[in-house]
From TrEMBL:
Pfam families from the UniProt entry: 3-dmu-9_3-mt (PF06983)
Organism encoding this protein: Zobellia uliginosa
Superkingdom per UniProt: Bacteria
CDD domains: PhnB_like
Domain PhnB-like intervals: 3-129
Alphabetical list of InterPro entries matching this protein: Glyas_Bleomycin-R_OHBP_Dase, PhnB-like
Name assigned to this protein: PhnB protein
Length: 134
């Protein structure tokens, strides 16, 4: 069994995936637009992503631009968490992903002997960075 995140966007999925690919050193795979799909959608949706995956060093999630019949609301129930063992890598990743977003917890040493930080990125996705200092 494997659990995987599937992120929904409102027309800026490609932009967000480009940002994540650059920040996380990953690649966009299986990119499909609505262009050739037999779905009743406005013409403005045809170039949007119906499905894509981001794969790379320890990361794999899926994403798409929601169709007009799938209303999106931002929520705070789910966070993507990245666990690292390298302090410099944690600081660099925190800086890249949180740029232009909203910081909830600055990246700093916590009582469980780890660097930890939490933020919402510029696309409304919640993240946690946790780096074991042992």
């Amino acid at each position: 069994m494997k659990t995987q995140a599937y992120l929904a966007f409102d027309g800026n999925c490609q932009e967000a995936l480009n940002f994540y690919a650059d920040s996380l050193g990953a690649e966009i795979k299986n990119r499909q637009t609505y262009a050739d799909k037999k779905i009743d959608l406005p013409a403005s949706y045809r170039d949007r992503l119906q499905h894509a995956e981001l794969k790379g060093k320890g990361i794999h999630f899926m994403a798409y631009d929601a169709a007009p019949d799938t209303p999106l609301t931002e929520g705070t129930k789910i966070h993507l968490s990245i666990d690292l063992n390298d302090k410099n890598e944690a600081e660099e990743l925190y800086g890249k992903l949180s740029a232009g977003g909203r910081i909830h917890h600055e990246l700093r040493e916590r009582e469980w002997n780890a660097l930890f930080g939490r933020f919402t990125d510029r696309y409304g996705i919640n993240w946690m960075i946790n780096c074991d200092l042992n």
